[in-house]
Amino acid sequence: MTKEVLITISGSQLMNGGNDDIEMMTTGMYYLKNGKHYITYDEVLEGFEGVVKNVIKIQPDSLDIIKTGVTNVHMTFEKNKKYLTCYATPLGGMMIGLNTKDIRVIEEEEGLKATVQYSLDINYEHVSECNIMVDIRSRVHTQETSS
User: Fold this and answer.
1) What's the pLDDT at 141?
2) Which terminus has fewer CB within 10 Å in the chain: N or C?
3) Are 111 and 135 in contact (CB under 8 A)?
4) Is residue 147 part of a domain?
5) 76 close to 64: Cβ distance less than 8 angstroms
6) Quick check: is 55 in a domain?
7) To 5 degrees, how large is the angle CA 99–CA 114–CA 97?
């Protein structure tokens, strides 16, 4: 995979009988270190000054999302484990619980895909059932041609 990548993050939350879907596409950087995949990108939050620096760390059995800047959080997803963390936003902080039910990672030559299914608690109360999909693709595809 190339260093420059196209990142697609999509997710859905099932709460109170309704479904809330989101999708974001951006560009970022990719590197592999000690068998772990790292993806970095910047995010701008509408209505707030500054950026959020994001790092996604993907391993075969876990996924971490680390946000610093306008918002601050370190979310860890690991199958059959629950993690509590403080999510600091410009509007205040909240305690979130992430109870990961399943995680799948597919590595390809020109990409990487991770899907996570989890339950979300906010301030110790169950809020929704969620899934997130992170799809990383090389920005530049080179094709070898023979003469």
Assistant:
1) 52
2) C
3) yes
4) no
5) yes
6) yes
7) 15
The answer to whether residues 52 and 93 touch, using CB atoms and an 8 Å cutoff, is no
Q: Per residue of the chain (147 residues), what is the pLDDT tens digit? A: 789 999 999 999 887 777 888 999 999 999 999 999 999 999 998 888 889 999 999 999 999 999 999 999 999 999 999 999 999 999 899 999 999 999 999 998 889 999 999 999 999 999 999 999 999 999 875 444 444
Range of the domain at 123: 4-138
Domain count for the chain: 1
CATH number reported for the structural domain that contains residue 115 in this entry: 2.40.128.20
- DSSP 8-state secondary structure symbol assigned to residue 71: S
**Among 138, 93, 98, 136, residue whose Cα is nearest residue 119:** 98
For the entire predicted model, the pTM comes to 0.89
63, 71 Cβ separation under 8 angstroms: no
Assess if residue 24 is contained within a domain. yes
Cβ neighbors of 34 (< 8 A, separation 6 or more) are none
Tell me if 49 sits within 8 A of 40, measured CB to CB: no
Is residue 43 domain-resident?
A: yes
